[in-house]
Amino acid sequence: MASIKEAPTVEKPSKEERASAKALKRQDRVSIWRVIPWSAHSFSMNALVVMTGYFTIYATDTLRLNPAVVGILLVVSKILDAVGALFTGWLVDRAPETKWGKARPFDLIIIACWAATAFMFSTPGALGDVAKYIWLFSSYILLTALFMPLYQANNPLFTARVFPRREHYSDVSAKTGLVTVLVAIIITVGMPIAIQTAGKDPAAWSLVAICIAVPATLIGLVRFWVFRESKDAAEIQAVRVSMREIFGTLRTNPYIWVLSGMAVLVGLYGSISAGAYYFRYIVGNIGLQGIVAISYVALIPLMFFFPALIRKFSISRMIAISSFIGVIGYMVMMFAGANLPLIMVSAVLTGLAALPVNFLAPILIIDNATYNEWKGNRRLESVGGALYSFAGTVGAALAAGVLGIVLAVSGYAGAASTQSPTAVHGIIALNSWIPAIFALITGIVALRYHRLEQNMKSISSEVLARREVAVETEIISGAPLTGTEAVRVVRKERNAPFGHSERKRDH
After folding, report:
1. How far apart are CA 444 and CA 275, in angstroms?
2. How far, in whole angstroms, is CA 139 from its chain's centroid?
């Protein structure tokens, strides 16, 4: 009888080995006590986005301006916003090093953001219509075409300058998402109640805007005071970027255009700001929009798993799946009417659709910067952030046009206390099947982006290897400067394979 061979015993890792493995894992994590102050800028920006979301209903109902004219002017202003987004990215990347760093000083722009917002919502009701249009849209353009793009374009660069590893970006973004959702619930609950209290009184709107702007500005400045740029966290290049380098980089990176396509679509379905209309004329109370926001508490347990989900699945796939869930959420609104439980279900599903895009886009922008460097070009984090912002602004411009056209065609009347059945159907469409179409297309585009993400580990490794060799050339005469030969040398020294083609030849 043949003897049965015993399976070889596997030695358990020693206490020291287990401790070493845990230490390596901790290197990829960022303490929640660093994440909370880092997230302060997101708290302020979230409040700013929610506040500006009431711009259209403020213009049509409080200032009694024509919805069609408001829609046209919004489209024009969003086109200017798009141009401004590109300009601000170029400006951030060309900014000189200061005693505060390169990216950090731009966090002070949050002061201008909230000053412009308070000014915008303080349009005197006694002015004539032309003067109202000038006051309202000049401040709106300053806010959305200059101040907000500058602040947002700075974020990827500041992130890369503070945190040294890609794993840190993912961990920070995921934890920032969790912390921001908790604070966003307070904002989205409280602000509609304040807006309901203001009603259609211009003076009351001004008071609400100022009372929100002051604390939001102070919160937005926390990141500036707490965090310093680290010269070890990101490559610092002394030579200023040129427009020729920018266009050359954009021509050789197809993935930044796929990412920008997603931004256009997200800007489209995320910027159709018709929720306030729905609650005022279908539910009957804007203040209840804040009560419905309590349903976002259901997202908190999921956010605890966000860091683990990011490590297991690609970001683009998470965006795709969440977008498809968002489609279901929007379609629920076709049948919800004034039923608050159904509206809350829709809010949770559509809120889930927005989470990966809102909090993980900076990682994808930094990935594109790493891809640029891998291709032998400048990284251009801020230009990538500006292009993403530009694309989102284009989507928002289209959304403003859709909103204005649908309201005008359906016969919406801002001065009326009730709306016609046709106008009601238009408001429902703006909150249901219209954004659902764009959310569906977003998910399909996100699946296309996965091609880059599945190669990011190897791309990042080669970029790091090139940097190491570039440092060695300062000491070792004749060492290769860049390119595949540099990577080959470094990997050979580490006994690591160069790539798929080399492994095939070895076999």
Report:
1. 25
2. 23
